[in-house]
Amino acid sequence: MSRTFTIITPDDWHLHLRDGAMLASVVGNTARRFRRAIVMPNLTPPVTTVSAALAYRERILDAAGVDTPFVPLMTLYLTDNTPAAEIHAAASEPAVQAVKLYPAGATTNSDSGVTDLARCMPALEAMAETGLPLLVHGEVTAPDVDIFDRERRFIDDILEPLSQRLESLKIVVEHITTRDAVDWVRSGRDGIAATITPQHILLNRNALFQGGLRPHVYCLPVLKAEQHREAVAEAAFSGEGRFFLGTDSAPHLRGDKESACGCAGIYSAPAGLELYVEAFDDAGALDRLEAFASLNGPRFYGLPVNEGRVHLREEHWQLPAVMPSGTGGELVPFRAGETIRWAITGVDPQ
Ligand code: NCD
Ligand code: ZN
Question: Which of 65, 92, 157, 334 qualifies as a cystine partner to 268, CB 3.0-4.6 A?
Answer without folding.
Answer: 334
